[in-house]
Amino acid sequence: MDTPRLTTNPFDDDKLREECAVFGIFGADDAAAHTALGLHALQHRGQEATGLVTYDGAEFRAHRALGQVGEVFGDPAVMQRLKGHAAIGHNRYSTTGDPMVRNTQPLFADLEFGGLAIAHNGNLTNALQVRRELVHDGAIFQSTTDTEVIVHLLAQAQGAVTDRLIAALRRVEGAYSLVCLTRKKLIGVRDPLGVRPLVLGRLGDAHILASETCALDIIGAEKLRDVAPGEMIVIDEDGVHSSFPFPPAAGRFCIFEYVYFSRPDSVVEGKSVYKARTAIGRELAREHPVAADVIVPIPDSGVPSAIGYAEQSGVPFEYGIIRNHYVGRTFIEPTDEIRNLGVRLKHNANREVVEGKRIVLVDDSIVRGTTSRKIVEMMRHAGATEVHMCIASPPTTHSCFYGVDTPERDKLLAAKHTVEEMRALIGCDSLAFISMDGLYRAVGLEGRNAARPQYCDACFSGDYPIRLADQEAQPGKSAQLSLLREQAR
Hints:
Elements: E1 5-7, E2 17-18, E3 20-26, H1 31-41, E4 49-55, E5 60-66, H2 69-72, H3 76-81, E6 86-92, E7 107-111, E8 114-124, H4 127-136, H5 147-156, H6 161-169, E9 174-181, E10 186-190, E11 199-203, E12 206-210, H7 214-217, E13 222-226, E14 232-236, E15 239-243, E16 253-254, H8 256-261, E17 267-268, E18 271-272, H9 273-287, E19 294-297, H10 303-313, E20 321-323, E21 330-332, H11 336-339, E22 347-349, H12 351-354, E23 358-363, H13 370-381, E24 386-391, E25 404-405, H14 413-416, H15 419-426, E26 430-433, H16 436-442, E27 455-456, H17 458-461, H18 469-473, H19 479-488
Parallel strand pairs: 16-27, 19-23, 23-24, 24-26
Antiparallel strand pairs: 1-21, 2-25, 3-6, 3-12, 4-5, 4-6, 7-8, 8-9, 9-10, 10-14, 11-12, 11-13, 14-15, 17-18, 20-22
Helix pairs in contact: 5-6, 9-10, 9-16
Protein backbone atom coordinates (compact mmCIF):
# COMPACT_ATOMS: atom_id res chain seq x y z
CA MET A 1 0.00 0.00 0.00
CA ASP A 2 1.35 3.46 -0.87
CA THR A 3 2.33 5.74 2.00
CA PRO A 4 -0.17 8.62 2.31
CA ARG A 5 1.30 11.94 1.23
CA LEU A 6 0.04 15.49 1.34
CA THR A 7 1.66 18.53 -0.16
CA THR A 8 2.66 21.21 2.31
CA ASN A 9 0.52 23.78 0.49
CA PRO A 10 -2.36 23.52 3.00
CA PHE A 11 -0.01 24.94 5.65
CA ASP A 12 0.72 28.00 3.51
CA ASP A 13 -2.87 28.87 2.64
CA ASP A 14 -2.55 32.40 4.01
CA LYS A 15 -0.30 33.28 1.06
CA LEU A 16 -1.21 34.39 -2.42
CA ARG A 17 0.90 32.67 -5.06
CA GLU A 18 2.39 34.16 -8.18
CA GLU A 19 1.66 31.67 -10.94
CA CYS A 20 4.77 31.77 -13.13
CA ALA A 21 8.28 32.93 -13.93
CA VAL A 22 9.94 33.36 -17.32
CA PHE A 23 13.57 33.50 -18.45
CA GLY A 24 15.15 33.80 -21.88
CA ILE A 25 18.72 34.17 -23.15
CA PHE A 26 20.18 34.71 -26.62
CA GLY A 27 23.84 34.48 -27.65
CA ALA A 28 25.26 32.37 -24.79
CA ASP A 29 27.65 29.44 -25.13
CA ASP A 30 25.57 27.28 -22.80
CA ALA A 31 22.10 28.77 -22.85
CA ALA A 32 20.47 25.83 -21.08
CA ALA A 33 22.70 26.03 -18.01
CA HIS A 34 22.18 29.79 -17.71
CA THR A 35 18.43 29.33 -18.07
CA ALA A 36 18.27 26.58 -15.44
CA LEU A 37 20.18 28.80 -13.02
CA GLY A 38 17.86 31.71 -13.76
CA LEU A 39 14.82 29.53 -13.15
CA HIS A 40 16.34 28.34 -9.89
CA ALA A 41 16.56 31.97 -8.73
CA LEU A 42 12.91 32.42 -9.75
CA GLN A 43 11.70 29.27 -8.02
CA HIS A 44 9.56 31.31 -5.61
CA ARG A 45 7.31 32.34 -8.52
CA GLY A 46 6.31 28.78 -9.45
CA GLN A 47 7.05 25.44 -7.80
CA GLU A 48 4.83 22.82 -9.42
CA ALA A 49 6.51 22.40 -12.80
CA THR A 50 9.35 23.73 -14.91
CA GLY A 51 10.49 23.53 -18.52
CA LEU A 52 13.20 24.64 -20.91
CA VAL A 53 13.53 24.87 -24.71
CA THR A 54 16.84 25.50 -26.51
CA TYR A 55 17.89 26.14 -30.12
CA ASP A 56 21.36 25.36 -31.48
CA GLY A 57 21.07 26.72 -35.01
CA ALA A 58 19.70 23.46 -36.39
CA GLU A 59 17.00 22.13 -34.08
CA PHE A 60 14.97 22.86 -30.98
CA ARG A 61 15.33 20.68 -27.92
CA ALA A 62 12.96 20.63 -24.95
CA HIS A 63 12.60 19.17 -21.49
CA ARG A 64 9.55 19.75 -19.29
CA ALA A 65 8.42 17.99 -16.13
CA LEU A 66 6.55 18.35 -12.87
CA GLY A 67 8.75 19.32 -9.96
CA GLN A 68 11.16 22.02 -8.92
CA VAL A 69 14.12 23.20 -10.98
CA GLY A 70 16.74 21.19 -9.08
CA GLU A 71 14.72 18.00 -9.47
CA VAL A 72 13.94 18.46 -13.16
CA PHE A 73 17.32 19.74 -14.36
CA GLY A 74 19.61 18.11 -11.80
CA ASP A 75 20.45 15.21 -14.12
CA PRO A 76 23.63 16.03 -16.13
CA ALA A 77 22.38 13.86 -19.00
CA VAL A 78 19.32 16.10 -19.37
CA MET A 79 21.41 19.25 -19.47
CA GLN A 80 23.93 17.81 -21.95
CA ARG A 81 21.11 17.11 -24.38
CA LEU A 82 19.82 20.70 -24.23
CA LYS A 83 22.45 22.24 -26.48
CA GLY A 84 22.16 25.67 -28.00
CA HIS A 85 23.05 29.34 -27.95
CA ALA A 86 19.48 30.45 -27.16
CA ALA A 87 16.88 29.22 -24.69
CA ILE A 88 13.73 30.12 -22.81
CA GLY A 89 12.42 28.62 -19.58
CA HIS A 90 9.40 28.72 -17.32
CA ASN A 91 8.37 27.90 -13.76
CA ARG A 92 4.72 27.19 -13.16
CA TYR A 93 2.38 27.13 -10.21
CA SER A 94 -0.93 25.52 -11.11
CA THR A 95 -4.08 27.26 -9.90
CA THR A 96 -6.91 24.83 -10.57
CA GLY A 97 -6.95 21.03 -10.50
CA ASP A 98 -3.87 18.84 -10.51
CA PRO A 99 -0.68 20.02 -12.21
CA MET A 100 -0.28 18.31 -15.59
CA VAL A 101 2.76 17.82 -17.80
CA ARG A 102 0.76 18.96 -20.83
CA ASN A 103 0.32 22.36 -19.16
CA THR A 104 4.02 22.73 -18.44
CA GLN A 105 5.69 25.48 -20.43
CA PRO A 106 7.38 26.57 -22.61
CA LEU A 107 4.91 25.41 -25.23
CA PHE A 108 6.36 24.56 -28.63
CA ALA A 109 4.75 24.52 -32.06
CA ASP A 110 5.89 24.07 -35.67
CA LEU A 111 4.23 26.93 -37.51
CA GLU A 112 4.36 28.08 -41.13
CA PHE A 113 7.52 30.13 -40.54
CA GLY A 114 9.23 27.45 -38.43
CA GLY A 115 9.45 26.39 -34.81
CA LEU A 116 8.34 28.65 -31.97
CA ALA A 117 8.54 28.22 -28.20
CA ILE A 118 6.61 30.50 -25.86
CA ALA A 119 6.43 30.97 -22.11
CA HIS A 120 4.02 33.29 -20.34
CA ASN A 121 3.58 34.82 -16.89
CA GLY A 122 0.17 36.26 -16.15
CA ASN A 123 -3.40 35.59 -17.12
CA LEU A 124 -5.56 36.38 -20.15
CA THR A 125 -8.93 37.61 -18.95
CA ASN A 126 -10.72 36.72 -22.20
CA ALA A 127 -8.92 33.42 -22.81
CA LEU A 128 -12.02 31.26 -22.52
CA GLN A 129 -14.01 33.34 -25.00
CA VAL A 130 -11.18 33.43 -27.56
CA ARG A 131 -10.54 29.71 -27.07
CA ARG A 132 -14.17 28.88 -27.85
CA GLU A 133 -13.93 30.93 -31.04
CA LEU A 134 -10.75 29.10 -32.05
CA VAL A 135 -12.25 25.68 -31.33
CA HIS A 136 -15.31 26.61 -33.36
CA ASP A 137 -12.98 27.42 -36.25
CA GLY A 138 -11.28 24.02 -36.00
CA ALA A 139 -8.39 24.56 -33.60
CA ILE A 140 -7.37 21.54 -31.51
CA PHE A 141 -5.99 22.34 -28.06
CA GLN A 142 -3.57 20.11 -26.16
CA SER A 143 -3.58 21.94 -22.80
CA THR A 144 -5.78 24.06 -20.56
CA THR A 145 -3.35 26.99 -20.37
CA ASP A 146 -4.25 30.38 -21.79
CA THR A 147 -0.75 30.48 -23.32
CA GLU A 148 -1.91 28.02 -25.96
CA VAL A 149 -4.53 30.53 -27.06
CA ILE A 150 -1.66 32.81 -28.13
CA VAL A 151 -0.05 29.96 -30.07
CA HIS A 152 -3.23 29.33 -32.09
CA LEU A 153 -3.69 33.03 -32.75
CA LEU A 154 -0.09 33.15 -34.00
CA ALA A 155 -0.82 30.25 -36.35
CA GLN A 156 -3.82 32.05 -37.83
CA ALA A 157 -2.06 35.37 -38.33
CA GLN A 158 -0.03 36.42 -41.37
CA GLY A 159 3.43 37.87 -41.94
CA ALA A 160 6.69 37.72 -40.03
CA VAL A 161 6.74 36.27 -36.53
CA THR A 162 6.72 39.69 -34.86
CA ASP A 163 3.73 40.76 -36.97
CA ARG A 164 1.93 37.56 -36.06
CA LEU A 165 2.67 38.01 -32.37
CA ILE A 166 1.39 41.58 -32.41
CA ALA A 167 -1.79 40.48 -34.19
CA ALA A 168 -2.29 37.67 -31.67
CA LEU A 169 -1.79 39.91 -28.64
CA ARG A 170 -4.19 42.50 -30.01
CA ARG A 171 -6.93 39.87 -29.78
CA VAL A 172 -6.35 39.05 -26.14
CA GLU A 173 -6.90 40.98 -22.92
CA GLY A 174 -5.19 40.56 -19.60
CA ALA A 175 -1.89 40.82 -17.79
CA TYR A 176 1.18 39.16 -19.26
CA SER A 177 4.90 39.12 -19.60
CA LEU A 178 6.00 36.59 -22.18
CA VAL A 179 9.10 35.35 -23.94
CA CYS A 180 9.22 33.63 -27.35
CA LEU A 181 12.06 31.79 -29.06
CA THR A 182 12.31 31.26 -32.82
CA ARG A 183 15.20 30.11 -34.99
CA LYS A 184 16.57 33.64 -35.21
CA LYS A 185 15.04 35.67 -32.39
CA LEU A 186 14.31 35.94 -28.70
CA ILE A 187 11.23 38.12 -28.17
CA GLY A 188 9.84 39.60 -24.96
CA VAL A 189 6.57 41.50 -24.50
CA ARG A 190 4.77 43.13 -21.58
CA ASP A 191 1.08 43.92 -21.61
CA PRO A 192 0.14 47.58 -22.18
CA LEU A 193 -0.41 48.22 -18.45
CA GLY A 194 2.76 46.41 -17.39
CA VAL A 195 1.03 44.49 -14.60
CA ARG A 196 3.55 41.65 -14.53
CA PRO A 197 7.33 42.31 -14.38
CA LEU A 198 10.00 41.74 -17.05
CA VAL A 199 13.60 42.96 -17.11
CA LEU A 200 16.30 43.13 -19.79
CA GLY A 201 19.87 42.17 -18.94
CA ARG A 202 23.23 41.43 -20.51
CA LEU A 203 25.99 38.89 -19.90
CA GLY A 204 28.94 39.58 -22.19
CA ASP A 205 27.55 39.39 -25.71
CA ALA A 206 24.40 37.58 -24.58
CA HIS A 207 21.11 39.32 -23.75
CA ILE A 208 18.57 38.10 -21.22
CA LEU A 209 14.89 38.57 -20.44
CA ALA A 210 13.72 37.56 -16.96
CA SER A 211 10.88 38.09 -14.50
CA GLU A 212 13.20 39.53 -11.83
CA THR A 213 16.72 40.86 -11.40
CA CYS A 214 17.62 38.04 -8.97
CA ALA A 215 17.72 35.77 -12.05
CA LEU A 216 20.34 38.07 -13.57
CA ASP A 217 22.38 38.14 -10.36
CA ILE A 218 22.72 34.36 -10.15
CA ILE A 219 24.50 34.18 -13.53
CA GLY A 220 26.53 37.35 -13.05
CA ALA A 221 24.58 39.40 -15.59
CA GLU A 222 23.88 43.13 -15.36
CA LYS A 223 20.47 44.69 -15.51
CA LEU A 224 20.05 47.07 -18.42
CA ARG A 225 16.50 48.19 -17.67
CA ASP A 226 12.91 47.16 -17.14
CA VAL A 227 10.96 46.27 -20.26
CA ALA A 228 8.39 49.05 -20.45
CA PRO A 229 4.62 48.46 -20.37
CA GLY A 230 3.40 47.65 -23.89
CA GLU A 231 6.96 47.23 -25.19
CA MET A 232 8.18 44.47 -27.51
CA ILE A 233 11.88 43.58 -27.29
CA VAL A 234 13.39 41.61 -30.18
CA ILE A 235 16.89 40.18 -29.69
CA ASP A 236 18.77 38.73 -32.66
CA GLU A 237 22.28 38.63 -34.13
CA ASP A 238 22.06 42.36 -34.84
CA GLY A 239 21.36 43.27 -31.20
CA VAL A 240 18.33 44.52 -29.26
CA HIS A 241 15.38 46.17 -31.00
CA SER A 242 12.51 47.92 -29.24
CA SER A 243 9.03 48.83 -30.42
CA PHE A 244 5.68 49.83 -28.92
CA PRO A 245 3.01 48.14 -31.04
CA PHE A 246 0.03 48.76 -28.74
CA PRO A 247 -1.86 51.95 -27.91
CA PRO A 248 -0.21 53.79 -25.00
CA ALA A 249 -1.79 53.35 -21.58
CA ALA A 250 -1.05 54.45 -18.02
CA GLY A 251 1.00 51.75 -16.30
CA ARG A 252 -0.55 49.71 -13.47
CA PHE A 253 2.26 47.53 -12.13
CA CYS A 254 1.17 45.00 -9.48
CA ILE A 255 1.85 46.60 -6.10
CA PHE A 256 1.80 43.19 -4.41
CA GLU A 257 5.19 42.51 -6.02
CA TYR A 258 6.62 44.88 -3.40
CA VAL A 259 4.60 43.32 -0.59
CA TYR A 260 5.28 39.63 -1.23
CA PHE A 261 5.76 38.18 -4.72
CA SER A 262 9.24 39.38 -5.70
CA ARG A 263 12.37 38.21 -3.95
CA PRO A 264 13.61 40.87 -1.50
CA ASP A 265 16.99 41.07 -3.27
CA SER A 266 15.35 41.98 -6.59
CA VAL A 267 14.93 45.47 -8.01
CA VAL A 268 11.58 45.90 -9.77
CA GLU A 269 10.45 48.99 -11.63
CA GLY A 270 13.57 50.76 -10.38
CA LYS A 271 12.87 50.10 -6.69
CA SER A 272 14.64 47.76 -4.28
CA VAL A 273 12.07 45.28 -3.02
CA TYR A 274 13.87 45.00 0.31
CA LYS A 275 13.88 48.77 0.84
CA ALA A 276 10.22 48.97 -0.15
CA ARG A 277 9.32 46.32 2.43
CA THR A 278 11.25 47.97 5.24
CA ALA A 279 9.57 51.27 4.29
CA ILE A 280 6.20 49.51 4.49
CA GLY A 281 7.11 48.37 8.00
CA ARG A 282 8.06 51.88 9.07
CA GLU A 283 4.81 53.28 7.68
CA LEU A 284 2.88 50.51 9.44
CA ALA A 285 4.52 51.44 12.75
CA ARG A 286 3.60 55.10 12.26
CA GLU A 287 -0.01 54.22 11.50
CA HIS A 288 -0.43 51.52 14.17
CA PRO A 289 1.91 51.88 17.17
CA VAL A 290 1.61 49.15 19.77
CA ALA A 291 2.90 49.06 23.35
CA ALA A 292 5.06 45.95 23.13
CA ASP A 293 8.33 44.34 24.24
CA VAL A 294 9.41 42.67 21.01
CA ILE A 295 8.69 42.72 17.26
CA VAL A 296 8.50 39.22 15.75
CA PRO A 297 8.40 38.56 12.01
CA ILE A 298 6.44 35.67 10.56
CA PRO A 299 9.21 34.21 8.40
CA ASP A 300 10.31 34.62 5.81
CA SER A 301 8.15 37.18 4.03
CA GLY A 302 7.42 39.23 7.13
CA VAL A 303 11.09 39.84 7.99
CA PRO A 304 11.88 43.08 6.08
CA SER A 305 8.64 44.77 7.16
CA ALA A 306 9.25 43.70 10.76
CA ILE A 307 12.73 45.24 10.59
CA GLY A 308 11.19 48.51 9.40
CA TYR A 309 8.52 48.37 12.11
CA ALA A 310 11.18 47.82 14.79
CA GLU A 311 13.34 50.65 13.48
CA GLN A 312 10.44 53.10 13.52
CA SER A 313 8.95 52.01 16.85
CA GLY A 314 12.18 51.54 18.78
CA VAL A 315 10.96 48.13 19.98
CA PRO A 316 13.57 45.35 19.60
CA PHE A 317 13.38 42.98 16.62
CA GLU A 318 13.73 39.31 17.51
CA TYR A 319 13.28 35.99 15.74
CA GLY A 320 10.47 34.71 17.92
CA ILE A 321 9.48 32.17 15.27
CA ILE A 322 11.99 29.82 13.66
CA ARG A 323 11.18 28.42 10.25
CA ASN A 324 12.10 24.88 9.24
CA HIS A 325 13.55 25.31 5.75
CA TYR A 326 13.91 21.59 5.21
CA VAL A 327 10.25 20.67 4.83
CA GLY A 328 9.98 19.49 1.25
CA ARG A 329 7.15 19.76 -1.21
CA THR A 330 5.59 16.62 0.29
CA PHE A 331 5.44 15.31 3.82
CA ILE A 332 4.30 11.94 5.13
CA GLU A 333 1.12 12.34 7.18
CA PRO A 334 -0.03 8.96 8.45
CA THR A 335 -2.65 10.13 10.94
CA ASP A 336 -5.14 12.94 11.51
CA GLU A 337 -3.29 13.75 14.74
CA ILE A 338 -0.12 14.54 12.78
CA ARG A 339 -2.16 16.45 10.20
CA ASN A 340 -3.55 18.67 12.95
CA LEU A 341 -0.06 19.81 13.90
CA GLY A 342 -0.42 21.96 10.80
CA VAL A 343 1.74 25.05 10.92
CA ARG A 344 4.37 23.44 13.17
CA LEU A 345 5.72 21.60 10.15
CA LYS A 346 7.26 24.88 9.04
CA HIS A 347 7.27 27.15 12.11
CA ASN A 348 8.22 26.75 15.73
CA ALA A 349 8.06 29.24 18.58
CA ASN A 350 11.35 30.50 20.03
CA ARG A 351 10.19 30.37 23.65
CA GLU A 352 13.23 32.23 25.04
CA VAL A 353 12.24 35.29 22.99
CA VAL A 354 8.45 35.37 23.50
CA GLU A 355 7.81 33.98 26.98
CA GLY A 356 6.45 36.65 29.30
CA LYS A 357 6.54 39.27 26.52
CA ARG A 358 4.06 41.48 24.73
CA ILE A 359 4.76 40.72 21.08
CA VAL A 360 3.85 42.22 17.73
CA LEU A 361 3.69 39.70 14.90
CA VAL A 362 4.40 41.25 11.48
CA ASP A 363 3.29 39.45 8.32
CA ASP A 364 2.82 40.47 4.70
CA SER A 365 -0.86 39.56 4.28
CA ILE A 366 -3.80 37.51 5.49
CA VAL A 367 -5.79 35.46 3.01
CA ARG A 368 -7.94 32.84 4.73
CA GLY A 369 -6.64 33.46 8.24
CA THR A 370 -6.11 29.81 9.16
CA THR A 371 -2.32 29.97 9.45
CA SER A 372 -2.48 33.27 11.33
CA ARG A 373 -4.75 31.72 13.92
CA LYS A 374 -2.39 28.78 14.42
CA ILE A 375 0.62 31.05 14.82
CA VAL A 376 -1.18 33.17 17.41
CA GLU A 377 -2.05 30.00 19.30
CA MET A 378 1.60 28.93 19.09
CA MET A 379 2.77 32.25 20.56
CA ARG A 380 0.33 32.04 23.47
CA HIS A 381 1.37 28.45 24.13
CA ALA A 382 5.01 29.64 24.23
CA GLY A 383 4.10 32.09 26.99
CA ALA A 384 3.48 35.41 25.22
CA THR A 385 1.37 37.64 27.49
CA GLU A 386 -0.07 39.65 24.58
CA VAL A 387 -0.11 38.86 20.87
CA HIS A 388 -0.73 41.71 18.42
CA MET A 389 -0.68 41.39 14.63
CA CYS A 390 0.33 44.10 12.14
CA ILE A 391 -0.06 43.33 8.44
CA ALA A 392 2.13 44.96 5.75
CA SER A 393 -0.70 45.23 3.22
CA PRO A 394 -4.32 46.41 3.25
CA PRO A 395 -7.01 43.73 3.76
CA THR A 396 -7.22 41.33 0.80
CA THR A 397 -10.87 41.71 -0.14
CA HIS A 398 -10.95 40.69 -3.82
CA SER A 399 -9.65 37.87 -5.99
CA CYS A 400 -6.91 38.49 -8.55
CA PHE A 401 -7.51 37.57 -12.20
CA TYR A 402 -4.17 38.78 -13.55
CA GLY A 403 -1.88 35.83 -12.92
CA VAL A 404 -2.06 35.21 -9.18
CA ASP A 405 -3.56 32.17 -7.51
CA THR A 406 -6.26 33.65 -5.28
CA PRO A 407 -9.10 31.79 -3.57
CA GLU A 408 -12.66 32.52 -4.59
CA ARG A 409 -13.75 35.75 -2.93
CA ASP A 410 -16.01 34.06 -0.41
CA LYS A 411 -12.90 32.32 1.01
CA LEU A 412 -11.06 35.59 1.62
CA LEU A 413 -11.37 36.45 5.29
CA ALA A 414 -11.41 40.22 4.72
CA ALA A 415 -14.16 39.94 2.11
CA LYS A 416 -16.62 38.69 4.73
CA HIS A 417 -15.49 40.23 8.00
CA THR A 418 -14.56 43.54 9.55
CA VAL A 419 -11.08 43.96 11.02
CA GLU A 420 -12.48 43.47 14.51
CA GLU A 421 -14.26 40.28 13.43
CA MET A 422 -11.02 39.06 11.84
CA ARG A 423 -9.15 39.81 15.07
CA ALA A 424 -11.62 37.74 17.07
CA LEU A 425 -11.42 34.82 14.63
CA ILE A 426 -7.62 34.85 14.61
CA GLY A 427 -7.50 35.25 18.38
CA CYS A 428 -4.97 38.08 18.68
CA ASP A 429 -5.21 41.02 21.07
CA SER A 430 -5.18 43.56 18.25
CA LEU A 431 -5.05 43.42 14.46
CA ALA A 432 -4.04 46.24 12.12
CA PHE A 433 -3.39 46.59 8.39
CA ILE A 434 -1.43 49.28 6.60
CA SER A 435 -3.70 51.76 4.84
CA MET A 436 -3.80 52.03 1.07
CA ASP A 437 -2.30 55.51 1.26
CA GLY A 438 0.37 54.19 3.60
CA LEU A 439 1.30 51.46 1.16
CA TYR A 440 1.58 53.96 -1.68
CA ARG A 441 3.70 56.27 0.49
CA ALA A 442 6.03 53.38 1.27
CA VAL A 443 6.74 52.84 -2.44
CA GLY A 444 7.50 56.49 -3.00
CA LEU A 445 4.20 58.24 -3.77
CA GLU A 446 2.23 60.76 -1.75
CA GLY A 447 -0.71 58.38 -1.51
CA ARG A 448 -3.23 56.62 -3.70
CA ASN A 449 -4.90 58.83 -6.28
CA ALA A 450 -8.31 57.16 -6.59
CA ALA A 451 -8.97 58.93 -9.89
CA ARG A 452 -5.65 57.83 -11.37
CA PRO A 453 -3.98 55.04 -9.35
CA GLN A 454 -0.45 54.21 -10.47
CA TYR A 455 -0.45 50.53 -9.45
CA CYS A 456 -2.78 47.59 -9.81
CA ASP A 457 -4.21 47.11 -6.32
CA ALA A 458 -7.37 45.24 -7.29
CA CYS A 459 -6.92 42.60 -4.57
CA PHE A 460 -7.28 45.39 -1.99
CA SER A 461 -9.59 47.85 -3.75
CA GLY A 462 -11.67 45.86 -6.26
CA ASP A 463 -10.51 48.35 -8.91
CA TYR A 464 -9.71 46.05 -11.84
CA PRO A 465 -7.79 47.99 -14.52
CA ILE A 466 -8.26 45.34 -17.24
CA ARG A 467 -11.68 44.11 -18.31
CA LEU A 468 -12.63 40.69 -16.88
CA ALA A 469 -14.40 39.36 -19.94
CA ASP A 470 -14.52 35.70 -18.93
CA GLN A 471 -15.47 36.56 -15.35
CA GLU A 472 -18.29 38.81 -16.54
CA ALA A 473 -19.61 35.99 -18.72
CA GLN A 474 -19.45 33.44 -15.89
CA PRO A 475 -19.38 35.25 -12.52
CA GLY A 476 -17.76 33.40 -9.67
CA LYS A 477 -15.78 31.04 -11.87
CA SER A 478 -12.21 31.32 -13.07
CA ALA A 479 -11.70 30.79 -16.80
CA GLN A 480 -9.50 27.77 -16.18
CA LEU A 481 -12.01 26.17 -13.81
CA SER A 482 -14.80 26.72 -16.34
CA LEU A 483 -12.63 25.19 -19.04
CA LEU A 484 -11.84 22.13 -16.96
CA ARG A 485 -15.52 21.62 -16.23
CA GLU A 486 -16.36 21.90 -19.91
CA GLN A 487 -13.75 19.28 -20.77
CA ALA A 488 -15.06 16.93 -18.11
CA ARG A 489 -18.55 16.83 -19.60
